[in-house]
């Protein structure tokens, strides 16, 4: 089982190497075209997310509730 994020480059490779259409490449690899064309609109590197990751790495045993308390204390 391959994740959809890993199938995207496979579709691009088929399109580039074999000069087939995007539709055909998606059909061969059984990837919905909507999944292939999807682009996330969220910025994965926002300051809050980075701070959550820092706390989670520093304090491995803390869950999301405790991390939320720490973030609320910081402001």
Describe the 3D structure.
There is one protein chain. With 75 residues, this protein is mostly helical. The chain folds into two domains: 4-37, no CATH class; 42-75. It has five helices and no strands. The chain has helices at 4-18, 22-29, 33-37, 47-58, 64-74.
Strands, total number? 0
Proportion of strand residues: under 5%
Helical content class = 55-70%
State the end-to-end distance: 42 Å
Tell me, what's the shape?
Answer: elongated
Q: Provide the domain count.
A: 2
| Element order: H for helix, E for strand | HHHHH
- Counted by DSSP, the helix tally is 5
Largest sheet, described in full?
none
Which value, in Å, is the CA radius of gyration?
20 Å
Mean pLDDT: 91
> Low-confidence segments, ≥5 residues, pLDDT <50?
none
Q: Structural class from helices and strands?
A: mainly alpha
Quick synopsis:
The chain has 75 residues and is mostly helical. The chain has 5 helices and no strands.
Topology:
Layout: H1 4-18, H2 22-29, H3 33-37, H4 47-58, H5 64-74
Q: Can you tag this structure with a few keywords?
A:
75 residues; mainly alpha; 2 domains; 5 helices; 0% strand; elongated
